[in-house]
Amino acid sequence: MELLGLVNYALFMAIFICIYALLALGLNIQWGFAGLFNAGIAGFFAVGAYTSAILTTAMDPDRIGGFDLHFIVGWIGAMLAAALVAWPIGKICLRFRSDYLAIASIGIAEIIRLVIKSEPALTNGARGIASIPRPAGDIGYMESQIAYLAIVLVVLIAAYILVERQFNAPWGRMMRAIRDNEGAAKAMGKDVEFRRLEAFIFGAALMGLGGALFAHFNRSITPEAIDPMVATFLVWIMLILGGSGNNRGAILGAAVVWIIWSVSEIATDRLPHEYAVQAKYIRLFLIGLMLQLVLRFRPEGLLPEPLRGDLRSTKPGADR
Amino acid sequence: MLELDELVMDFGGFRAVNGCSFRVEEGSVTGLIGPNGAGKTTLFNLIAGALQPTSGRIRFLGEDVTTLASHQLFHKGLVRTFQIPHEFHKLTALENLMMVPPSQPGESLFSNWFSWSKVKSAETEVERKAYETLEFLELSHVAHQRAGNLSGGQKKLLELGRTMMTDARLVLLDEPAAGVNRTLLRKLETKIEILNKERGYTFILIEHDMEMIEKLCDPVVCMAEGRVLIEGDFQTVRSNPQVLEAYLGETTGDAA
Fold first, then answer.
1. Does B80 touch chain A (CB under 8 A)?
2. In this entry, which stretches build a coiled coil (chain B) (predicted)?
C-alpha cells in the first residue's frame, strides 16, 4: 500500500461519496422536506442506472439498444426515466401515510429489481450490462479517475445549488408546511396531493441520476448492484446521521457513513481468511447499529434542520 | 353568503350532524354554540371541505361547493382556524404566515430556477405583509421562533393571523378563546371586531365563552344533537328553555 495506492483509494472513495450524496439529496427532498418515507431508493437508482446504460452502450443484438448516445443524453435520460417511473408510483402510493408508504415503496423497489434480474430483452437479465462508456475513460487510469471525480463533483454541486434554492424559496416553505401539518396546509389552500407528487418525482430524478453516475463509473451494471442494503438503507442512515432537512447535512452524512462503511471493509479483509467471509456480514449489522446510535443520541443529525426564511441574521440562540 | 341545506354527516353508525340548515349573511359575525358533542366542529369540517357530507348541500357565494376540497374552498375566500392550533411547528412564526398567500410565483419549481427575480419581489411583498400581521397581533418579538415553541395563546393568535394573510371572505373560527387568558382574550375580541368592521370579513365563531359570544355575535345559532335548536340574537337564544335544557340537562338554572 504505497502512496499511489492510497491516492487511488481516496479518489475511489470520493467518487462514491459524491454519488451517495446525490442519493441522499434526493431522499432529503422526499423525507427531509416533504416527509415522504420512501424506502425504495434502490428502485429509482436501478431505473436510472439501466436507462443510461441502455442509451449509451454500443449496439447489442441480445437486448434492446444500445443506442450509443452521448453520456449527457444518458444522464438526462436517466433522470427522466426515474421521474416517469416515480409518477404512477407516487400517484398510487402517496395516499398512504408514512409507514405504509415505506412498505409499499420497498415492495416496488423489489419488483423493479426482480424484473431487471429476470428480464433478458431489456436489461440482459442477471448478467447485466457491461462496457458502459465512462466519460474521460480512455485516458490513463489515474487521470481518468481524477477526471471522473471532477465531473461527479460538478454534478453534485449543481444539484446542491438547485435543490438548496428550492428549499429557500416559497416552494420549500410550502413543502415543510405540508410535512409539519397536512390538514392546516390544505386549509391554507395548498394542493397537498399534487405537491407531494412533485417532491417525490423531483427526489426520484436525483436518485436516477445517482444510479447513472454509478453505472458509468463501474462501466457495468448488474442486478447485484441494486441491493436494497447498500442502495436504500445506507442512504437512509446517511441522511439521518447527517441531518434530515439539511442539504449540507445530507452530503456530510454521505461522507461520514461511506468512510465508515468502506474502511470497515478493509478491516474485515485483514482478518484471517476463514473469518473474512463471515465478517462481511457483520458490516450489515454495523448499518443497524449506526442507525440505532444516531437515533438514540442525536436524532436531529449532525447538522440539524436550520431555521430558514429570513433568518440568516438571527442568532442561533433564537432556536430554543 | 353561506347556505347550509339539510346537512347530514355519518361516522359509521354515528350521526354527528343530523339535518342541519342555516344561512350566514355577508358581514355578520355568527356565533355557533351548543353543548359538547353537538356537532359544531364536524359542521365546520363540512363547510371547510375537510369532510364530505353524507347528504345535504352547501352553497357559498351563490355557488354549490358541497364537493369541493378544502384547498379549493380556500381559493374562493373561505378560511378556517382549528380548535387545537395546527401550527407548522418547525417553521418560524413569520414563515407560518408567509406560506399562506395563494399562488405565489415561488411555489413553482420552474420559476425558482428560471425567473428568480420575480420570485424575490413577490417574496418581499409577502414578507412585508407578514411582518405587518405579526405587528397587529403583537407577535413581532417571536417572528423568528419556531412556531412549535410558542405558547398556546400565541399559537391561537398565529392561527388568526393566517386568516389575515389572504383575501378572506368568510372566516371560520373554532374556539378562538379556548385556553387563552383573559387579557389576551379581550385583545382577540378587538382584533375580530376590527377585521369584521374594517376588512369586511364575515365570521362564524364556535365558542363556549358566553361573554365573547354576547359581545361579538349576532345572530347566535345553538346546536344540539347535530341539528339547529334555535337561532336568533343572543338574548333570545339565551332565554330559550330548550337551550337551557340542552346545556344543563334540565329546565332550571342559568345558562353559561
1. yes
2. none
Nearest Cα residue in chain A from B106 = A170
Residues in chain A within 8 Å Cβ distance of B109:
166, 171, 198, 202
Find the CB nearest B88 among A180, A198, A310. A180
Q: CB of A280 within 8 A of CB of A219? A: no
Min Cα–Cα distance to chain B from A67, Å = 30
State whether B88 and A174 contact (CB < 8 Å): no
pLDDT in tens, B213-236: 888 888 899 988 888 888 888 888
Per-position b or e across A95-107, b if 16+ CB within 10 A of its CB? eeeeeebbebbbe
Q: Each residue of A264-320: pLDDT tens digit?
A: 888 887 878 777 777 777 787 877 888 888 888 888 888 888 876 544 434 343 333
Nearest to A306 by CA among B86, B128, B143, B146: B146
Is the domain defined by B2-87+150-248 classed in CATH 3.30.428.10?
no
pTM of the model: 0.89
- Band the pLDDT of B253: cuts 50, 70, 90: very low
B98 grid coordinates: 408567509
Of B148, B156, B131, which Cα lies nearest the Cα of A319? B148
| Complex ipTM tops 0.90 | no
Per DSSP, A136 falls in state T
- Mean pLDDT is highest, among A82-86, A226-230, B34-38, B111-115, for A82-86
Is the previous residue joined to A66 through a cis bond, with omega within 30 degrees of 0?
yes
The answer for A166, left when phi > 0, alpha when psi is -120 to 50, beta otherwise, is alpha
- pLDDT for B250: 52
How many angstroms separate the CA of residue A221 from the nearest CA in chain B?
A: 32
Whether chain A has a CB inside 8 Å of the CB on B48: the answer is: yes
Q: Are A124 and A131 in contact (CB under 8 A)?
A: no
Residue B168 contacts A, CB cutoff 8 Å: no
